[in-house]
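Schema walk-through. Below, the input block comes first and the output block second. Nothing else is stored per chain. Lengths vary across the set, and this one has 379 residues.
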Amino acid sequence: MITAVNKRIKVLIVDDSPVAVEVLKRVLASSDEIEVIGTARHGKEALEMIPRLRPGVICTDLHMPLMNGFEFVKEVMARHPLPILVISVSVCEGNDDNVFQLLAAGAIDVFPKPRGVLLGQSAKFSADLIAKIKVLSGVVPFRKIKKHGIAALTPQAHGGMVAIPKPCAENYDVLPHIEALISRLKMIVIGASTGGPQAIETILKELPADFSIPIVCVQHISEGFMASLVDWLKGCCKLNVTIAQNNEKAIAGNIYFAPDNRHLKIDKSGAFVLSNDPPEGGHKPSITLTMRSFTEHYMGGVLGVLLTGMGRDGADGMLAISQAGGATVVQDKESSIVFGMPDQAIKLGAAKYVLDVNKIGRFLAKIECIEKNQAGDNR
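--- output ---
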């Protein structure tokens, strides 16, 4: 018989503050599902412990002696890919550059650490931290590698199979009925949640500077970080990345993000509408609401892309796109940090193509290239 103890999430804490370590241990000990199996004072010490302890999740501080959090995350992802949660006062709002540098290095998520005596005294802090670790315990770890000079994500082996709908664009150079899609394609809508910033970066950096199809993105992210996410993506993308403005019309060469705490819709004239309607499915902005709105306007001219994330936001939106005659692409299980949202779209029969995240950007670029060739032939 397997006991509950054997199923506990094994956590390694890396922090040079004895007080912080004790508080984190006490908080995590309050959950029957989590076991702290070790602590380290800095990254170098932790790297020596990982092969022996084999943690399921690593919680690390950012500022530490000998090897700081940035260096530690990079080394872990190169040597022993594991889900990493960075807990630090330096990932609070106002330290946004740290957040996206850590995500780019391979951390799955960040968690602001209250200062001083407030650490661990908040019931919300304890509940939120435990919830984060439970989420991370189920994610797919990635190894950061270099391929042709470009950083790529390689999923590590894990169990489980996924029923992939047909046709599946494993070879994205051969796409069934793609000509019919391209002839009416007007807008690409991308939705993502947990792990989304890394996935979106991977996709957008593949798109050429003359990409002619406007893109709208809805990313679930903590309020206050959207502007920094956009600034971060500008540094790796050839296209202009911006936050959508009310009454603005989408133009080619631009990638528009839904702003904090507003739904992004489109009106009959083709202008953006930033709505303050209640959350849909617990989300604001809602991926499904945006996909439905753009489908009502462009009908079969929408290509929907649903990426890594918890829950089911976007699944019903992908179904609306599919039923209207548009195209739908979901990120596959092997490259998803959390497979929840893509999996829900697949189960609804709403996913036409299932692709590794490293192929989705090339898939979009291929479609755009064919569209330009068709336009040239028609002149």
